[in-house]
Amino acid sequence: MAGVQFVEISKSFGQVQAVSEVNVEIEDGEFAVLVGPSGCGKSTLLRMLAGLERATSGSIKVGGKVVDDLPPKDRDVAMVFQNYALYPQKTVAANMGFPLRMRGAGRLETDRRVLETARILGLEDLLKRYPKQLSGGQRQRVAMGRAIIRNPSVFLFDEPLSNLDAKLRVRMRAEIKELQQRLGTTTVYVTHDQIEAITMSDKIVVMRNGRVEQVGSPLDVFDSPVNRFVAGFIGSPAMNFLEGRIRSTDDGPEFITAGGLTWKLPDVGLRDLSRCASIGMRPEHIELAAEGESDAFSLRISVVEPTGADTMIIARNGSDELSALIKGRHAFVPGNSIHLKPLLGMLHFFARDEKAIRT
Amino acid sequence: MNPRTTSILASAGLFVLTLACAGIVFFPYYWMIVSSLEAASLFEWPPRLVPSSVTLEAYVRIFTERDVFTWFKNTAFVASSTSVFCTLVAINGGYALSRFRTHATTGFSIFILFSQLLPATLIVVPLYVIFRQTGLYNSLIGLAIADAAFVLPLATWLMKGFFDRIPVEVEEQAMVDGCTRIGAFYRIVLPLALPGLVVVVAMSFITGWDEFFLARTLISSQGNWVFSVGLTSFETQYAIAWDEMMAAAVVFALPAVLFFLFVQRYLVSGLTSGAVKG
Ligand SMILES: Nc1ncnc2c1ncn2[C@@H]1O[C@H](COP(=O)(O)OP(=O)(O)OP(=O)(O)O)[C@@H](O)[C@H]1O
Ligand SMILES: [Mg+2]
């Protein structure tokens, strides 16, 4: 068991700066998720931890020990690749046993542990098959088995679920998390799916363009994103942003949206509101308001999407657009006007440089 | 005509065509065998396809009066050495060209492909000079090196194509699982490239087996003759011993045929799977 530390890690491929000055600490036993849009450097960071890629500068520690000069085999990490990378010429049993054999375990010992691991993952009946005779989900499990069999200090996953169908993905998500909790092994998990990130992690590392934007617990990142990027990236459906500017009046400040709505800002206890250039609100934090209510927006409904339990609507006013998740079923008609108000405690304010404005 | 009849006719036509092609390909071999068994009929007109009398005299004579055993031994040595050299260099070179992509390696890949375009006649004189100076002239090892050099460009490209099709993750996985880079190559990657390996082994072996031009130029003493050179010795100033030459040709061709029968299963899958990409 061991924690992981990235210290000022940078990596460039020729002109491309894939990772810039990343400083992240992952505690022993923690489930950390690296999340961010495609090309932000998640895989590169993971591969540097595995030893498959050499950092341009900076240092990586596993269990407090610098591993920069160690080859992958000596880092005591196990990895699951996106395409599972099973050895096509080996049976399931030989695939799972391979890391043990490479570490000098005897045949009997290996067989015993392969069987034990296969039992944990429900693979007993597949041990004699070859990878091409397995379904996607089974392959995924074999790859997991090969990773957990030798009790490594750290598990590394690079988008392990992205090749599975939606249902299986949800199930494997839970399975991986449960397994990790049971084994208590430090885990670094890469995904571009923010739902996976929130549901699985103890710690989220949000990345963009090779930089770490925010590190925190999933709820922390969800509730207090440090900037507009994180706010928009984490959460589904995505956060709404109203662009605009603040105008002071005798009654207190007003927010004038780009689409021309004027909204009297409620007192949310922020001192520095004059810098505010956009307001963010999550669709689930918007509710119906009566006509003429002072802190409501009036917009025109453009799309109605019943989700079964709730109703999602997208409403517009000029260039302003809000999507709102309204509890229950409603017979909204596109084209009609609607009054919506945000939950005041749930607003996010962002300055022109996209940073969140905090108290 | 209804579609069923059409398709039967088409199949029949195709069958006849295939048979004709096979006949054209196999006839020289048939003629070679027939001629080795009965010399007299070779120049008769009209030609007789079925020999009237069969005798193994020519075979007895080549084994007793000629150095067939020596040629055979030399050829086998040259062919296997060519195969070993070529395979060793091609798997390592092909792997490097496939995995270590830089401007230099890409340029080199194209360069070796160009070298394949040069005819052997162009290279044989410098090769002769170099071999004389380095003492490789008139040695079987030298001949094997020269043969290997001629197969290598193609062999390296073939191996590169096979390595290109093996996902690099499998290899990285092996390294995380406890192999060194070399270990991952030999334990995981090379077995996956086995069809390619068989193609290269077969190609270089056959080249070393039946190559004539280099053997003629780079070998001087009779004791070092390989089979292809030996075959020409049946043609003397005054006569050509056709039946003996054909008998020797049969003996010469036999191991190659057996070898191909043995590897053809891999060869077909290897050649076609290489054709998918690269
Ligand atoms: N071997 C390489 N050579 C050159 N550039 C590379 C290499 N590997 C990655 N990059 C570049 O580095 C950047 C980060 O790549 P990386 O694979 O880490 O992204 P990612 O976050 O994993 O994206 P995805 O979600 O699509 O997998 C990208 O701009 C990519 O083009
Ligand atoms: Mg990636």
SSE diagram, text form:
The complex is a heterodimer of chains A (359) and B (278).
Chain A: E1 4-13, E2 16-26, E3 31-35, H1 42-50, E4 57-62, E5 65-66, E6 77-80, H2 92-102, H3 107-121, H4 136-148, E7 154-158, H5 166-183, E8 186-191, H6 194-200, E9 203-208, E10 211-216, H7 218-223, H8 228-233, E11 240-249, E12 252-257, E13 262-264, E14 276-281, E15 286-288, E16 297-306, E17 310-317, E18 320-327, E19 337-342, E20 348-351
Parallel strand pairs in A: 3-8, 3-9, 6-7, 7-8
Antiparallel strand pairs in A: 1-2, 1-4, 4-5, 9-10, 11-12, 11-14, 12-13, 14-20, 15-19, 16-17, 16-19, 17-18
Helix pairs in contact in A: 2-3, 2-4, 3-4
Chain B: H1 3-37, H2 57-65, H3 68-99, H4 103-115, H5 120-134, H6 140-164, H7 168-176, H8 181-192, H9 194-210, H10 213-218, H11 227-232, H12 242-276
The structure holds adenosine-5'-triphosphate and magnesium ion (MG).
General description of the model:
- The complex is a heterodimer of chains A (359) and B (278).
- By secondary structure, chain A is an alpha+beta fold.
- Chain A folds into 2 domains: 4-233, 3-Layer(aba) Sandwich (Rossmann fold); 240-351, OB fold (Dihydrolipoamide Acetyltransferase, E2P), CATH 2.40.50.140.
- Chain A has helices at residues 42-50, 92-102, 107-121, 136-148, 166-183, 194-200, 218-223, 228-233, and strands spanning 4-13, 16-26, 31-35, 57-62, 65-66, 77-80, 154-158, 186-191, 203-208, 211-216, 240-249, 252-257, 262-264, 276-281, 286-288, 297-306, 310-317, 320-327, 337-342, 348-351.
- In chain A, β1 (4-13) and β2 form a beta hairpin.
- Chain A is elongated and about 80 Å long.
- Chain B has 2 domains: 1-55; 66-277, MetI-like (MetI-like fold), CATH 1.10.3720.
- Chain B is 77% helix and 0% strand.
- The radius of gyration of chain B is 23 Å and the shape is globular.
- The two termini of chain B are 44 Å apart.
- With 278 residues, chain B is an all-alpha fold.
- Chain B has helices at residues 3-37, 57-65, 68-99, 103-115, 120-134, 140-164, 168-176, 181-192, 194-210, 213-218, 227-232, 242-276.
- The longest helix of chain B has 35 residues, at 3-37.
- At the A-B interface, β6 and α2 of A face α7 and α8 of B.
- The structure holds adenosine-5'-triphosphate and magnesium ion.
- Residues 42-43, 158 of chain A line the site of magnesium ion (MG).
- Magnesium ion binds at residues 42-43, 158 of chain A.
